Amino acid sequence: MIGVTGATGQLGGLVIEELLKRVSPGEIVALVRDEAKARPLADKGVAVRLADYDKPETLAPAFEGLDKLLLISGSEVGRRGPQHEAVIKAAEEAGVGELVYTSLYQLGEWTGERATILSREHQATEDALAASSLNVTLLRNSWYFENYAQSLQMGAEHGSFIGANVDAPVAAAPRSDYAEAAAIVLTREGHTGKTYELAGDDGFTMPELAEIASEASGKTIAYNPLPQEAYAKALEQVGLPTPVAEMLAASDASIGEGVLAPGSKDLSTLLGRPTTPVETSVRQLFS
Questions:
Q1: Nearest CA to 108 among 97, 95, 120?
Q2: Which domain of life does the protein's organism represent (predicted)?
Q3: Are 215 and 156 in contact (CB under 8 A)?
Q4: DSSP alpha helices (H): ranges in the chain?
Q5: Beta-carbon neighbour count of residue 278 at 10 Å?
Q6: What is the predicted pLDDT for the residue at 52?
Q7: Would residue 82 count as lying in a domain?
Q8: So what's the pLDDT on residue 27?
Q9: What mean pLDDT do residues 107-121 have?
Q10: Which of 64, 105, 203, 253 is the most exposed place for a label (fewest CB within 10 A)?
């Protein structure tokens, strides 16, 4: 049995879709906070179990009988440390055979001034996994192309988009590529104990992304880099909570130091094909 946390989320839902291409629905367990949202999965024959990070008593029963568990990192920045630790403890208690965790690309590079709350939470989780009795596989995911989708759409509307990364390349790929890789790891043997640095084959800078988006949208889109503090303030002004705005700005500034630069081919190796080119993702966004 294969369990997937956050199964109704953006990445989790795609992982379930990929698993359904490879194994029978009865071998998949969707682990969710809201069982009602998972009704479409249940209709496909996928088992649905309540597993709430903030209710540790729900976790171990939900993990019973799992050979493999995909822990998709939580979405609540600042709370993920204790949430992930609760999952790890419950997985040990339930006797889960292997835990696969979606961590952060080139985590070892996010040090010193480049460290952010995002990287610190991932590091804390990796440390907890290393100290556990579990068999572990790490999927260190780079940025999702979708992280830039809203900025590009606003850029097409207003003529520009902003960020704190001046000109460092970003080895991003669409969520679907990462989901396919996760499903491959979950359904094939030989991955236990490995750490995969998953990223797009090629990188792109923000000015290059603006040029690609301009061509795809038929509109002139510019990229305007800002200092980290100014970018955080701009994100607050469009409605993001201060902690989230500060985290995104700090992460973008670290990306500007090259922490998401291309280099690893682990993703395309797992997929058995090149990663999806950014031009393809941009065209799909504006189609």
A1: 120
A2: Bacteria
A3: no
A4: 10-20, 39-43, 59-63, 80-94, 117-131, 149-158, 175-187, 206-217, 228-237, 242-255, 266-271, 278-285
A5: 23
A6: 93
A7: yes
A8: 98
A9: 92
A10: 64
* 73 is a domain residue: yes
Closest CA to 152 of 10, 254, 281: 281
| Look-up of token digits 């979950």 | 186
Q: Which two tokens stand for residue 162?
A: 């902003």
Q: What angle do CA 81, 101, 145 make, to 5 degrees?
A: 95
**CA-derived radius of gyration, the chain:** 19
Q: How confident is the model at residue 77 (pLDDT cuts 50, 70, 90)?
A: confident
The count of domains in the chain is 1
pLDDT at 78 over 80: no
**Does residue 156 sit within a domain?**
no
How confident is the model over 109-124, as a mean pLDDT? Answer: 93
Q: What is the pLDDT of residue 14?
A: 98
> pLDDT at residue 80 above 90?
no
Angle, nearest 10°, between helix axes 175-187 and 10-20?
Answer: 50
CA separation for the pair 263, 260 (Å, rounded): 9
Q: How far is CA 36 from CA 25, 32, 50, 59, in A?
A: 18, 9, 10, 18
- Classify residue 57: in a domain, yes or no: yes
Do the beta carbons of residue 171 and residue 261 sit within 8 Å? yes
Give the predicted TM-score (pTM) of the model: 0.96
Q: Which domain holds residue 48?
A: 2-142+174-198+263-275
